[in-house]
Design goal:
- 29% of the residues lie in helices and 19% in strands.
- With 311 residues, the chain is of the alpha+beta class.
- The protein has two domains: 73 residues, no CATH class; 161 residues, Nucleotidyltransferase, domain 5 (2-Layer Sandwich), CATH 3.30.420.
- Helix 4 crosses helix 7 and helix 4 packs across helix 8.
- The longest helix is centred in the middle third of the chain and has 31 residues.
- It is elongated and about 90 Å long.
C-alpha cells in the first residue's frame, strides 16, 4: 500500500561533507571507484557540495551497506587494473599504508592519502598556520607594551551591575558599569562606577556616579593613552547606557584602541580535531588581561620549522 503523502520518512540532509558520517554513505562515483566496485542501492541522503565546475549543488548519497557488487568479474577487474599504470600504488595510502575499500584521496603534493591521513595533513597545515600567527601575536604584544611614553598603554575592562530578566524572559539592561583602567605597570589609573539608567530605576548600586561627568573624565584620561580592550561588543551595554543618559562615548576614535581577543586567540594557537580555531576565553578582569598580555610578550619563539619535522 502506498504511504499517504507527507508520511514518508525524509532522507537525511548534511550541510557539508564534514557532517557526513564516515564509512556509511558514498556517492555513485565513489561506489564505482571502490577497490571492488559496487553499484548504488536506493538514494539514502543528500549533502551540499559542488559539481565538477565548482557550482553549488546538492549531491545524492547512498548507503554503502545497501549497495551491490557490479557485474564485473575478478578477471575483468584484474585486466582493468593491469591497464592502469601504478594503479596498485594509487590504492595504498602513502602515509600509513592502508588499503581502504574506497579510493584514497589523490594529491599532487603527497600522493594518495586515506581519509584519516588526509585529515591529519589538514590539521598539521592548520597548526603550522597557527604557529606563524602566534609569532605575529608575540610581536604585537611586545609592541603594545613598548609604546612611546607620550602615549602609554592602558587596559580597560567593564563589570556590569545586572538587573535580571523581565517576567517575559528578556534581559534587563544593566544599571551601572564599573570601568577599570590599569596602566602597563598594573596600577589603577581610573575606576569609576557609572550609572547607566535613570535615577528612578531600581537596582542602582550605592556610589554609582553621574554618567555625563564620569564619561567626560574618562575621555580626558584615555585621549592621552593607547587603550587595550577585550572586544568592542563587551562595551555595547556601556555605550548604550551612556547614550540613554545623554553622556558622550569616551574611547578615542583615532585608531588608538586595540582588541585583545584575536591577539590572545592567535597566541594560544589551538586547533580542534575538526580543524577549527577556537576563540580564547576572556580573562574577565583588567589585571588578568594585563597579565595575559605580558605572558604573550614574554613568549620565547622557537626556531621556524614545519610541525611534525624531526627535531
Amino acid at each position: 500500500m502506498t504511504a499517504p503523502t507527507g508520511t514518508k520518512a525524509r532522507r537525511p540532509h548534511f550541510p557539508s561533507w564534514r557532517d557526513v558520517p564516515s564509512g556509511i554513505y558514498a556517492t555513485a562515483a565513489q561506489l564505482k571507484s571502490m577497490d571492488l566496485p559496487r553499484q548504488p542501492g536506493p538514494a539514502a541522503a543528500t549533502v551540499d557540495g559542488r559539481d565538477g565546475i565548482g557550482r553549488s549543488t546538492t549531491i545524492t548519497l547512498y548507503r554503502i551497506d545497501q549497495s551491490a557488487p557490479t557485474a564485473s568479474t575478478a578477471a575483468q577487474l584484474e585486466a582493468a587494473r593491469a591497464r592502469l599504470e601504478n594503479s596498485v600504488r594509487a590504492r595504498v595510502c602513502v602515509d600509513c599504508g592502508a588499503r581502504p575499500d574506497r579510493a584514497p584521496i589523490a594529491t599532487e603534493s603527497y600522493g594518495a592519502l586515506c581519509p584519516a591521513c588526509w585529515h591529519i595533513r589538514g590539521l598539521r597545515h592548520r597548526q603550522e598556520e597557527a604557529a606563524r600567527e602566534r609569532a605575529g601575536a608575540v610581536r604585537t604584544a611586545r609592541s603594545l607594551l613598548r609604546i612611546p611614553q607620550n602615549r602609554p598603554l592602558a587596559v580597560l575592562h567593564v563589570d556590569y551591575t545586572e538587573r535580571g530578566h523581565t517576567p517575559a524572559g528578556t534581559r534587563r539592561s544593566p544599571s551601572a558599569g564599573k570601568v577599570t583602567v590599569l596602566g602597563a605597570n598594573g596600577l589603577v589609573i581610573a575606576e569609576p562606577l557609572l550609572r547607566l539608567v535613570s535615577t528612578r530605576a531600581k537596582g542602582i548600586p550605592p556610589g554609582a556616579g553621574d554618567p555625563v561627568s564620569g564619561s567626560e573624565v574618562l575621555a580626558a584620561i584615555l585621549s592621552q593613552l593607547t587603550v587595550l580592550i577585550w572586544r568592542y561588543r563587551d562595551l555595547d551595554d556601556l555605550a548604550a547606557g551612556l547614550r540613554s543618559q545623554g553622556a558622550t562615548w569616551f574611547l578615542p576614535a583615532d585608531g588608538h584602541v586595540h582588541e585583545m581577543a584575536l591577539l590572545a586567540s592567535a597566541w594560544r594557537g589551538e586547533v580542534t580535531t575538526e580543524g577549527d580555531r577556537p576563540m580564547a576565553v576572556a580573562p574577565g578582569r583588567a589585571d588578568r588581561m594585563l597579565y595575559l598580555l605580558q605572558q604573550i610578550a614574554d613568549t620565547e619563539q622557537a626556531p621556524a620549522m614545519p610541525i611534525g619535522a624531526p627535531s
